[in-house]
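[scheduler] slot 2 assigned
[scheduler] job type: sequence-to-structure, two independent chains
[scheduler] chain ordering preserved from manifest
[runner] begin chain α
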Amino acid sequence: MASYGLSREHAAVVAATRAVADYFETVAKTSAEPQHAANWVMTEALADAKDHNDELRVTPAALSQIIGLVKGGTLSHQAAKRVFAEVAAKGGDPRSVAESLGVIQVADTNVVAGWVTDVLGAHPTEVARYKKGEVKLLPFFVGKVMRLSNGKADPKLAQRVLEEKLAS
């Protein structure tokens, strides 16, 4: 708890067995995000291990890389779960696996702006409502951009571009 800033519950789970504790510590030290490491170990890693004779099938280095890809905005959390499952099943470098699955987020402002323009053009009624003060429609537009991009748009960037275009 003191070394990694974890709650009692998180610490109890990641220290339940020596193997899990060692795994967690290796991930935490290499990802520089102990809380994220604990969350991933407690959810994806232990769920996968439970289904595979308590074997932690994703190496600590690979899990650290997955955490880094999420933190860096390369993968959404949902896409990272798919990458984790694929790495657990077949191995491989997480970034390469993400590329082969086609789940790398697009963070190019021009590409995202194109999707935003298409979405706004397809929904003039909602755009008018938004401009009249219905700001609660923003998640609707973000969802449409995500759908149009097949989940590849960086949602934070999409929201920022939407806000800019809707303000003009």
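[runner] end chain α
[runner] begin chain β
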Amino acid sequence: MTPALDPMPTDWTTALAVVAHPDDMEYGASGAVAAWTDGGRSVSYLLITAGEAGIDSMDPDEAGPLRADEQEAACAAVGVRDLEILDHPDGVLTYGLELRRDIARSIRRVRPELVVTLNHRESFGPGRLNMADHVVTGQATIDAVRDAGNRWVFRDLLDDEGLEPWGGVRWVAVANSPQATHAQDLSERDVERAVASLAAHRAYLDALGPGPMSDPGAFLRNLFTARGGDPLMTFELLPM
């Protein structure tokens, strides 16, 4: 039997999504974002890289700005107005203090109650191994939540940048985790906006060639209904 999922919490107003690449949020999580922004909540995005190494047929110097533009359009489709893209190198992210500091900086700036990141587990399920950038970003995000609340960690964020500690993060929600615990119900409008957000990554999807991503609508609708019943997006919710 498929275990029942608890509903995502609703008693929050501000969220920050931290992912490695343009398009990471659009593989399902943007459907939940659409529901949240429609409900009056504020969601900001922090991308660790510009995804410049993601298109084999395009030089990174060209791909990075193009993918950033596509991410802007994807954000607009689901009501996200605050997008920050860092310049860590795509494809070769390493876990370390610099990455934790950069994420902690954004957490202190946005002051979210909910932090969303992509699956950092070993796999996405049987036969679907995860990639290093996702693993590194997810673990660094969880650690940076704690860093952001400790005034004695990364003291330059306060002393030099005036960013007060923020210990108000109550949960980290891990999208597409194989250990899902919670779900966000989606309306047809949420699904349509999620499809529009994924379709905004047109150059990236076209470069993938024929396959499941040739039809973003079918891909997401299958994802959202994979557990049967009405559309929903699943998360592993980690209380902080």
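[runner] end chain β
[qc] chain β: Residues 14-239 form a domain with the Rossmann fold fold (CATH 3.40.50.10320).
[scheduler] slot 2 released
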